[in-house]
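User: Can you help me understand a structure? I only have the sequence.
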Amino acid sequence: MTAQGKAMTLGANLSVKNEEQRILRQHLENLRQFCDEIVVTVDEASSDHSLEICREYTDKVFPIRTGVYADNIRREGSARLTTDWELWVDADQLFPPALQQEIRQAMTTGKHPVYHLPMVNMFFGHWYLRKEHWNYQLRLFRRKDFAFSRDDLHNWRFSYEGQAGFMRYPMLHYGIASVSEFLGILNRYTDLDLEALKRKGSGGLLDQSLPTPGLKALVNDPLERFDHIFNTLAYKEEREFGALYSWLFSFYTFVEKAKLLEAEHKERNAWEYGHIDMDALCRRIDRELEGEDRRREQRHSARRAYALKRWVRGLTPPYVAALIRKMSRG
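Assistant: Let's start by predicting it. Here is the structure, written out as tokens:
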């Protein structure tokens, strides 16, 4: 209730694509326990029965065409809500009773205009329950005080007045179920990010500056990223699954850089799919062979000089050998 005695209402803004085989029914049942309204935007490219399942739980289900980064998914859902507060949800999340109560209490007091919710993640069949591995996401907000935008896959821009609040109890995230699924998502997301990375020179999973990668970025950076996750962020406490998590997310950032390097190299060299410029390639091979001939002669000369030096040292008195070593060092 507000100071005027009006009960605050809560709407769930949900987007769905091919979620039938995951926890969609459990998720929708969970939302009905504490939300006054559920609006679902279903990607038109969804090929399973997600749309039909959602219509069993709410009459506000809307097929829409998604964009590259799907900024319009949240916007389309938000435009169809009629509630005072809005909760952004994904079809792989559950809200335990303790968190449901926290959310309703926060709406009643109205102390903060927006709230970050902690999230416990499941990856590869393992729940990462240690509190230092929870991550916080801005998910709950009073609609009249909030605006948002998005210009890449991973990072939202939020606008609101006042101070954000933080919930105590976490939501449960049924994340990536297998390594195979992770690699498929990695490949799809890094492809989507590539154009933005080339255009802006920044972005990606870590929202960082990404100039054309050099040798260090491809060799040292992934190792440093692994060390940061595994040791600094203490994922080593998760033992084997901590190592698995650390390596795979380090590999994600490596693939971002690898795809950027590949794309810029191909553009710079006018590389074409399905065609080999044999003349240009043969000229490069000729130069390589000429260079190899020179390098071979240099190696032979160095070996002959070294052999001669050893022979001379073996035939002369010690003082001459010492003099030769001194001259060679000088």
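Now, to help you interpret it: The two ends are 89 Å apart (CA to CA). Residues 179-268 form one domain. Let me know which part you'd like to focus on.
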